[in-house]
Please model this.
Amino acid sequence: MIGERIKRARKAAGLNQRELAELANVSAMAISKYEREENTPSSSVLLALSKALGVRTEYFFRQVDVKLGEVEYREHDKLPAKEESRCWPM
Model:
């Protein structure tokens, strides 16, 4: 979970592994291993990563669950004609 979070934050920041490694003062190989879940970063490294990525340390541990409910559809006859034509090209 932490590795995936590091990777997401790194990509969102527009950094490659080497750039993140330089900012966090660790090796690029260490970043690679963290992202592949082969190693777990120490607390001091997590602090450096969070600072380099501009995220809070909780970001690495927070679980995000997306629950989808029942899908509701809107009646097309209630849409203005112009908007409906964009939904259904003829």
Q: What stands out?
A: The two ends are 45 Å apart (CA to CA). The chain has a mean pLDDT of 85. Residues 2-60 form a domain with the 434 Repressor (Amino-terminal Domain) fold (CATH 1.10.260.40).
